[in-house]
Every structure is written in structure tokens, then in C-alpha cells.
Amino acid sequence: MLTSVLTVGTTAVVTGTLAGRLGPDRCGGHMLARRMVNLVSPFCTLAMGVAVPRYVAMAQNDSERRAFLLAGLRTRRRSWPADWRNRTCR
Q: Residues 54-71: pLDDT tens digits?
């Protein structure tokens, strides 16, 4: 509960600060870009946050669990940009 309240409060403060500093056009562009990233994100990650734990829990033995976990990690790694460590926020 506290985490949810803090998240909502922080989002309101950051959004207000961005709107004040960037102006309506640039802030609107930022908000639109953020919405688009949030819309596309589940397709890029293939919902691995749900699928991997589910299949690991349903596995019959340790070798199957390990295989599902490694397959999920490999798939997740491929969905990251090639230069993900070198990216900076501009």
C-alpha cells in the first residue's frame, strides 16, 4: 500500500516538474513516447515475467526447471538492445 501511494505521488511530482520545465509541446511528446513504449513493451519481452515462473513451477524435475529458466533468460537477453550498457539518457 505504501509503495503504491509513493509511486503515485512521485509520478505526479515528476510529471508536474516535466510539464513546467519542458512546456506543453515537449512534455506532450514525452508523454506520448512513454505511452508508446509501455504499449509495445509486453510484445518485446514476450511476457517472460509471467511465462518463465509459470513453466518453472509446472516442471516435473530439476532438469526441466533449469531448461525453462535458461530458455527464458536467453529469450529475454535477445530482446535487449545490442548496446544496452552504453545507452545514456539524453
A: 888 888 999 888 888 888
> Do 20 and 33 meet the contact criterion of CB atoms below 8 Å apart?
no
- Upper half-sphere CA count for residue 46 (Cβ side, 13 Å): 13
- Planar angle of CA 29, 14, 85, nearest 5 degrees: 75
Name the nearest CA neighbour of 65 among 78, 49, 75, 54.
Answer: 54
Q: Is the pTM of this model over 0.90?
A: no
Cell of 8: 503515485
Residues in the chain: 90
**Integer CA distances (angstroms), 35 to 16, 18, 40, in order:** 17, 15, 9
